[in-house]
Amino acid sequence: MKEWIKAIVILPFNVTVVIPGLILYFSKYKFFMPNIFCFIFGLILLFAGLYLAAWTMLLFHKIGKGTPAPWAAPKHLVIQGPYRFVRNPMILGVLAILTAESLILNTINIFYWAVLFFLINCVYFKVFEEKQLERNFAGEYLEYKKRVPMWFPKIRF
């Protein structure tokens, strides 16, 4: 349990709460109500992102027997739930949360942070995480990687 709390505080909490809070503070943010469509869409994205992030973290705990953090990584490859459609749904959940914050708070600065966060993760996953997954799960991960896209689900009709 201690590892879970540490992983959540250090990773998603910092990314979605602490850093956006610092961005607002240092940009001398003043709230202006967004138009109603942005606000409602932001709320929908917020709940969808929270749901997706929570679901994927729960899968890491129940199936993977680990956390989202590299220092307590899952012992089993998680390919169920949203992981059937994309390899990084947890990050997509966090991106939805950040985009929602940007819309609800009516500030482009948090959206810039979301874009930067996405770009950092694109590099991190390619350079570090995928290599670690290949070492830890070998052929199972390589097969999964062939079938499932990194970020955008394949749409089949």
Describe this structure in words.
With 157 residues, the chain is mostly helical. It contains 4 helices and no strands. The chain has helices spanning 2-26, 36-62, 89-104, 108-147. The longest helix has 40 residues, at 108-147.
Please render the helix and strand layout as text:
Layout: H1 2-26, H2 36-62, H3 89-104, H4 108-147
Helix pairs in contact: 1-3, 1-4, 2-3, 3-4
The share of residues in extended strands comes to under 5%
Structural class: mainly alpha
Order of helices and strands: HHHH
Cα gyration radius (Å): 17 Å
**What number is the mean pLDDT?**
90
Instruction: Tell me, briefly, the overall form.
Output: globular
Main β-sheet, in a few words?
none
Give the helix proportion (percent range).
55-70%
Number of strands: 0
Low-confidence parts:
none
Q: What is the helix tally?
A: 4
Alpha-carbon distance between the termini? Answer: 42 Å
